[in-house]
């Protein structure tokens, strides 16, 4: 397990200075030169996605980069949740549970920070979350929430795939979604061994869950203090 | 710089971007309306018909080839689990391997229907040697060996679907169906790994850490890219100032190309 001291970012990290060189487009050009023309343009042409302070809402907008911001928002949610879970484990957490939940937290941090890095210039700001409905001292409360988030994440990436079909990012979304599915199966097995792919997540063809961005955000809405608008995203 | 400027720039790179997206969306919109009126089992048939109508042609031979490649793997998995479930005394009931068996049988049927309705010919089931030419002689009598082979098939399946995703871009519904199978295979892989982990059969996690200690084993090729800690040129080690430990490699699963997959499963083909 990583000591908490190492998880607190040094001055380089988020929250102290802007995480990346936001004002240097050349950096993004270099970063994305391997991604093809669309990637380069997307990375170097946009501007920051600003929060509407009055309504505490960010609008991810349309097109490929917006879909990545939608994923970034979900990874922020998962990351913040597991950071809280691992900051003080629920009563009776076994060594194995602590180890697995710490691994999952690290995966989610990696995803979140990767999106923050990929989206260099055009990304939603740090979002605020409301976890008041979760009892972090209670195993069942923590693990059922984790199950909800992981299954939701799987369904979100499965639904986002076709929206990313024109982008160079489809492959990377694929690399992430199977890790989310591994988390989902693991959390489910911790809750009830053998429930890794119960019929609530597998249809009669053996296909996993899929949801559109508005369906996902409706289910996750109560956890977002900063609301994330996704209704301008393409639907098909 | 604002949003509309961004879109203008995209258009200058790809003038037809809106046309291409609108054309595809129109097709899918029509399907969405049709789809709600159909029973789940009828959906693959409806998909094929829709493609023919919308484009006046069959689903591309490339897409059919990918589907048949997927079917080849699903046949292998389906027969593997059917054999195991049919072997008395091999599987502890609590481990619910039958759930995986059911899914693989369903995937075979689903792919067969989808390929047929899209105008293709589904590949037939092959003949298998699940001992891998003698490497796993007790695959259906020793539960540990069975799990080793099961994990190899599941992780290979995950990598295989991932490797084909971009080949399915021309067809939203088939891409989405493939992604949904892909994440289901990942759930299976995690479950098999979970069983091995809690029983102490292997020093392993539900996710793939580095090369999964596969160096020098028969399954080295499955994990050949998993030690990569760079995603697009971004280093995950220490990303954002965080020490994410093993997540530098475990946070992203890696694709396998078709020829790599076929080489991995070759010893299991009779």
Automatic annotation (TrEMBL), chain A:
Entry superkingdom: Bacteria
Xref: InterPro entries: Ferritin-like_SF, TAT_signal, TAT_signal_bac_arc
Pfam families linked: Ferritin_2 (PF13668)
Segments traversing the membrane: none
Protein's UniProt name: Ferritin-like domain-containing protein
Protein species of origin: Hymenobacter antarcticus
Automatic annotation (TrEMBL), chain B:
InterPro entries from the UniProt entry: Ferritin-like, Ferritin-like_SF
Pfam families for this protein: Ferritin_2
Taxonomy, superkingdom: Bacteria
Source organism: Hymenobacter antarcticus
Descriptive protein name: Ferritin-like domain-containing protein
SUPFAM superfamilies: Ferritin-like
